[in-house]
Write a structure and sequence with these properties.
The complex is a heterodimer of chains A (330) and B (516).
Chain A: H1 3-19, E1 32-36, H2 43-57, E2 65-69, H3 76-84, E3 91-95, H4 98-105, E4 115-125, E5 127-131, H5 139-146, E6 152-156, H6 161-173, E7 178-182, H7 185-193, E8 199-200, H8 204-212, E9 216-221, E10 256-264, H9 269-283, H10 286-294, E11 298-302, H11 304-325
Parallel strand pairs in A: 1-2, 1-3, 6-7, 6-8
Antiparallel strand pairs in A: 3-10, 4-10, 4-11, 5-8, 5-9
Chain B: H1 2-14, H2 17-35, H3 40-48, H4 57-82, H5 91-102, H6 106-140, H7 144-156, H8 166-180, E1 183-184, E2 191-192, H9 206-225, H10 238-247, H11 252-267, H12 271-286, H13 298-314, H14 316-322, H15 328-339, H16 348-351, H17 353-383, H18 389-408, H19 411-429, H20 434-458, H21 469-495, H22 501-513
Classes of the chains: A alpha/beta (330), B mainly alpha (516).
Amino acid sequence: MGRTSTLLLSAAAAVLAGAMPAVAAWQPQKPIEFVATAGPGGGTDNLARAVQNIVTKYKLTEQPIVVVNKGGGSGAEGYVYGKASAGDPYKVIFGTSNAWQQPLVSKVAFNYTDLTPIAAMAQDEFLLWVKQDAPYKTAGDYLKAAASGEFKMGGAQSKDTDEVLTRMIEKAGHVKLTYIPFKSGAETAVQLAGGHLDSHVNNPSESLGQWRGGTQRPLCVFSPKRLPQGAKITATEGWGDVPTCAEQGLDIKQYEQPRTVWLPGKVTPDQAAYYVDLMKKVQATAEWKDYIEKTSQVDTFLTGAEFDKFIKEDLEHVKQVAGEQGWLVK
Amino acid sequence: MDNLGELLHGFTIAVTMPHLLLMAVGVLLGILVGVLPGLGAPNGVSLLLPLTFGMQPVSAIILLSSMYWGALFGGSVTSILFNIPGEPSSVATTFDGYPMARDGRPTTALATAFGSAAFGALIGVILITFLASWVAQVALAFGPPEYFAVYFLAFASFVGMGGAAPIKTVVALAIGFAIAAIGIDTVSGSVRLTMGIDELVKGVNFVVAVMGLFGIGELLVAVEEEFHARAVSSRIDWGEVFRAVARLPRHGVALLRSAAIGCWMGITPGGPTAASFMSYGIARRFSRRGRYFGTGEVEGIISPETADHAAGTSALLPMLSLGIPGSATAAVMMGGLMIWGLNPGPMLFVDQKDFVWGLIASMYVGNIVAVALVLLTVPVFAALMRIPFVIIAPLIVIICVVGAYSVSNSYLDVVMMLGFGIVGYLFKKLFYPLAPLVLAIVIGDKAEDAFRQSMLMSKGSLGIFFANKLVTCLIVAGIALLLLPLALQLARLRRKPEPPSGETTAQERAQEKVII
């Protein structure tokens, strides 16, 4: 290859770059690793694999993508790995709000400030679930029955989103609940089906099969308005038929868990911008809509200042609950 | 019988050319991931998962479940030949499988393992076929106290097991519990025992511990004693494959007992690992030749293998009918099910009959395909034993290092694996038993979680372990197993007032040598 052709090539590249200023600033040159901060089969893992499939299908990058599971320590393993990979733009970390919540309540060796935020891509809703044959029909009935102080609330992990919400319910409903932590939402759902618990606050996808199978039913959803109708889950009801908790007298207007995407710390703005753009492209596909619908999540896209604001607000809120419970680590 | 009609319909779906081909491919891939330690069935299945997205759900689950069968079989190969368990559930197979192979009978060991494994799997599938609805109810009855009782039973079947000094067993258990406690605690959410190493927050992976304890530990002992320096001369003997399988019915009691334990543990999500350990422990207690266990006893191979496969197979049932995965691999498959647009749960049996019964029929056919393929490979694997030690030893080190690294692409795991190798070596030199240590690493944290969840539920009262018939039976059985050897010993002492220390030391020492 002569000098002229090299020059021509770089000239062509410059022209191309000029045509697509937003994306061409930085391009990956080697395989990309998607780090799921959860074990295979969990919600975070599903997200990472869904994004991987979409990127590969539409050839959004020339580079191959590998999904690695680092779900040890409630996801801390993955975040610590991200922290240790500072400056490496080939590691994309998929997580939830525990990126900023976990460092508040456990002595883990990372904080969300060690990572570069890319986006919050979807919001998982929370619902209040009871056993199918439980006598109460509304959240109000539930709170009245729970006033006995004997109610057992199950959830995934300790001092994590589920327990935070449980403590919020206690405060808003003036009741006392015994919180019992399990390894995952799926495990909790089975415990409720067996009658070992009185309630739990699973995400829709974690209890979908159980609802359809008639072992448990949702009383209300912790969201400002009812969920989109979608397809019927049972013979008569779909997600849109579940009332909001606020309208039933349990005054918690909104509680959601974002699915978050991060790069390690100390990457360049160009590199971060590349991934923000990549995730935006992923979100525009039909496969993404399908994934959101199948997992009953809410499609959102927060990035940049909006994402920062969301983290700060959530952090303040969790700090308050954790402080009242005496969970904060010194 | 409704179920029988459905099953026949299922066979028409499973026995078609494309599906038989998928089974063969799945089984061969499975054997491969099973043989390579550190890869294992859960990882293998998750690697294959993206390829299935475009398939029919039935075809996809046939491919994945065949891979699972293959991996279960493959996991036994390295346990028997090199003392490196490829799967957590094949650890117990090393106890007698490896001594038998080292003794020059690798063909017999492998064929016995595969034959009894196939029997276990068959019993598991039959159970799924006929008891699907009943089994679902049993599994639902398991809350935290019941879980704890099952784990307690698994521990009890091991403690005080003939051979090792009870105090050494307890020490090994305690070390195992400490290792299991490393990382984030589910119940309090706090970080424990990371000793300033940030990465330890993930805990100690089982595969890392086992490869070091068994693979590297055994290697160190072998290097020192040099008894391994000669290659085992084993002829490639096709006849022995069939003779070994034909001899299996003689051990009918062990087969049936192990299959029962396996099914029970598979359904009550105790899982294949707990099943194989418990089955081995109980066989050792009740077999007439129990005292020779650990030296290459046939029943020492039959018991864990049968239970492992019976549990592995029946673990799919709670996944399908309740959405509770009974094993790690079942959990990955459940993720797959959701991506294919199916929701595991009781309604699956009503809404998706073709899928469910196609899968169940494929379990029969898939296991036959798997056992045929795997028996054909026995002489090939057995021939590996003829390779001289000087070549095999470095290979084992490489396999262990690569295996440990591939668990989560972490250098720390490799260092820990080598550390566990030294621990394994010291345990062997000092006659401490490895099995209780491994058992505690595997189910120690689960037992702890279950205990503390029970305590939260009962507000601190131990009465919860006697609150209903099920949990009371399990706890009483556990206590009985725990006290049985002690009672027997007391009875013996009473009959023979003089402590027979002098005359039995030689025998005891001989026994201690065979402690695994």
